[in-house]
Design brief:
Radius of gyration: 19 Å
CATH architecture of the largest domain: 2-Layer Sandwich
Number of strands: 7
Structural class: alpha+beta
Number of helices: 9
Helix content: 40-55%
């Protein structure tokens, strides 16, 4: 369901979703039928293919979308990747994706903007992370690095603007034991 809801801009057939998730077509068809009967998804037929879409008319759509976004959305995936990079004190998603996450209306963002605060050990490692994130999320992830003092001072107009708009704090402890 997360794939259908969080990537509504990229409709998927049941067969395509089964391949993507490495699941059995039959099991996925049964689950899609249950979700459609419950009114959570809708489907269209194109030839023999059944394409799944989130049901935006459902009274549960907004809350379900928000829950899936928080549980499985880009901020979680970005945190998993950035947690492996040394020298990062904080990281935030900003820009249009953060605005949508905060409930501001607008079009589906084409990319995700991330600010990394600190002194990452390797710019090359961040380039690899950005590439891996594109592969996982299907969206370009633009990573900007700023020093901790620069972030705290926010003297530049750009950083002041970023801090005045919605920010999503990225959990950098993914995978760490408590």
């Amino acid at each position: 369901m997360a794939r259908v809801y969080l990537h509504a801009d990229r409709p998927v057939t049941i067969a395509g979703l089964a391949r993507e998730l490495r699941l059995n077509d039959g099991a996925l068809t049964r689950e899609a039928n249950r979700l459609e009967r419950a009114g959570l998804v809708r489907s269209d037929r194109v030839g023999r293919n059944r394409i799944l879409h989130p049901n935006e008319e459902s009274p549960y759509y907004r809350e379900l979308y928000g829950l899936l976004l928080k549980a499985y959305g880009p901020a979680v995936v970005i945190g998993e990747e950035l947690a492996r990079v040394d020298g990062i004190q904080h990281a935030f998603v900003h820009g249009s994706w953060a605005a949508r996450y905060a409930g501001e209306p607008g079009s589906d963002p084409a990319d995700i903007d991330v600010i990394v605060v600190g002194n990452p050990a390797s710019g090359l490692e961040l380039t690899r992370v950005s590439s891996d994130l594109f592969a996982r999320l299907g969206r370009e992830v633009n990573i900007m690095v700023v020093g901790e003092a620069e972030w705290d001072a926010a003297e530049g107009g750009f950083l002041r603007e970023v801090q005045s708009r919605p920010l999503i704090t990225i959990d950098l402890t993914c995978g760490e034991l408590a």
